Amino acid sequence: MKQLFKLFGLVLIVFTISCDKEIEEGVKQSDLSKDIEFVTDYGSIIMRLSDETPKHRNNFIKLVNQKFYDSISFHRVIEKFIIQTGDPETKNPNTTKEIGASDLPYRVDAEFNPNLFHKRGALNAAREGDNNNPNRASSSTQFTIVQGRVYNDSTLNIAEGRINKWLAYNKLINKPEQQENLKKMASYIENYNEHKEAYQVLKKELDSLAQIELESMEPYTYPDAHRNIYKTIGGAAHLDQNYTVFGEVVKGMDVVDSIAAVKTNNRDRPEKDIRIITARLIERKDYNR
Fold first, then answer.
1. Which residue among 207, 227, 247 closes a domain?
2. What φ, ψ does residue 55 adopt, rounded to 5°?
3. What digits encode the pLDDT tens for the residues 53-84?
4. Has residue 14 got a pLDDT over 50?
5. Residue 125 lies in a domain
6. pTM for this structure?
7. Looking at the structure, do residues 166 and 70 belong to the same domain, yes or no?
């Protein structure tokens, strides 16, 4: 009887393994129910990815499984706002390349979701600006963790105004008749020193047209639940609707706060590198945040 039980257990194990299929390269079905742990120089940060943003979730899991984030540092730190990481150039402390400008050569399609917003602890995908990236696709590797600040009704109203200006501009540059201007703008930005004057003229023209869009569109307003969280827990409210939120910190916000408080240079880079020692998938638990 004992031998039969052992045999049944073996069959069960084999069956479980065979069912753990690879849903795409570098991502297994069982990975989707796990959390991500970053062990940093300042302690561990545990993050939970959202199933409502599957493209970002799977891309992030793939990178963790590939050990991409191991030895990468936090290259942009702004207290009461965000800490940012994911630039592979930071693995090399002697690099002469511009820090913050590198990732892998692909983008992740935007996945805006009304349930996901920039509250304290949110994971936010970094991206290039609208003029080079009108579809607001995300960086393949760079992301931020929101530390944020607490708002009141007045500062939330100001943030709403910023969001609506961005949305109006993005709506404008995605129109077919603006594609030629969009190409010019991207070219001017790439060679800014040569085309500074032309850039400023075109920007003024597009800003005027965007104002017309703003006056005619239905403005975005924060849902009451989001507004209440921004007024109590805090976050980075002005980023909503413009960057994909794809998860949140479930343990280790004290570590985020410690990293956010470090001394930085005039480019917001920590004066002393703060590295991700290792990144790994771990079994999911309930945490007291």
1. 227
2. -65, -45
3. 999 999 999 999 999 999 999 999 999 999 99
4. no
5. yes
6. 0.88
7. no
